[in-house]
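Re: beginner question about structure tokens

> Can someone show what the tokenized structure looks like for a real chain? I only ever see the sequence side.

Sure, here's an example I had lying around. Input first:
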Amino acid sequence: MTFTSALSGRDLLDGAATSIATLLAHWMERALGTDVNTTIVGSLTWADLCVMLCLALMVLFVNLVAYAFVRHKLREAASKAQGPTLQHHVFGAIDKPLYVLIWIFGVYLVATPLMMKAAPSEGLQILRSVFSRAFDLGAFAILFWLFFRFTHVLEAQLSIWTSRSSSKLDDLFVPLVGKSLRTIVPVVGIIFALPILGLPPEYASVLGKGTSILLIVAVAIILFQGVKLVEKAVLAEYDITAADNLRARKVYTQIHVLSKLLYAIVSIFTVASVLMLFPEVRQFGTSILASAGVVGIILGFAAQKTIANLFAGFQLAMTQPIRLDDVVIVENEWGRVEEITLTYVVIRIWDDRRLVVPLSYFIEKPFQNWTRVSAELLGSVFVWVDYTLPVSELRKALKEIIEPNPLWDRRFWNLQVTDSTDRAMQLRVLATSADSSKGWDLRCDIREKLIAYIQTHHPGSLPQFRAQVDSERPDRPVTP
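And the corresponding structure tokens:
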């Protein structure tokens, strides 16, 4: 829609409004007499008020008819099928824009006869110009609002068609098309609406750059949406909350790192494209390229840590020494990998603290990964007891403690004497668990129940000091 076509359409509407107003005024004069031409304020007469009231009632009647028609079609579409059909989507899309468009035309019809009859003046001309442009912009906005709502209709219809296909690419393509159209339509609407504003020619270059920036940003948004949809489509195949989520955590780690890298690349190219629209920046860019070797060396030294982290991110995504939700020991802290960015890793420590570690740390320094291959762990419990404790009896008691315990994964357990001193012996209990959290709780439970059993059944077998008294030499000190 150009400004010229909008102007000719508005002239046609002005002529129709004037003709309708003249015909209504003639009928009123014949029905009510010449008294209806009595002036109220300025050139406004009772006939003019009646004409405006009649036009307003006509607009209201048309709006009610349109409302009844649309509602009838919606009920008719709902009664034919269980789910929403194309007819239901179409009439649902034109519902609100149609009512607003009717009222915009109605207000213009009601106001046009009055403004045409008013005495010409500079202020009135300005008012007419503002009113006309407001009408053009309103009608234009409603038109693109309708286009915007029809993108949902198109997306819904494509979803119906692709639901009959077994290909999973359709589930990725349809939302991308809908979101892309909903991004492009407002931008195109703004670009086409600018001529209607009738701005002076000196603003043409500014508007041209503004519209170019809008298009670049719109393309960037579409690329962001595409990356996000691909990420969701890939991750939907894997359940990271499952008990055996090793494969899922591998994929999650790779996809998150790669998607963030793509976001960064798109952002850099978007900013660069916007800056290249300005001649000053282009000239500055030429100067920089002329000395690219020196600048590259300087930037290489200045950003070597950042670059190292970026390459470490690639290496982590591919080799995966750590993954999301891995249990790790870093800097003598036990925690889980909560987030992996392009430059650092966030470790959620067991007491809800966060340890932020650069990516290069996991390439250059050793650390423990308790879930590298599997989450299953072998836990140990150490207890010091006296030599009088019967180990075989304690082993039978330990069996009754471990085997009914739901934290034990039923793979392995044992009890052995692993050390001894001149005063006590050390017992070591080994027991397996499904993961580190259950392993910690299992070890604590075994330790508590084992000590309680010794206290109850063999209280004299707890670690103790012995002393020997020499009765033949009372002056000799006691030897511990």
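Each token stands for a local structural state, so reading them left to right follows the chain. The chain has three domains: 3-164, 246-369, 377-461.
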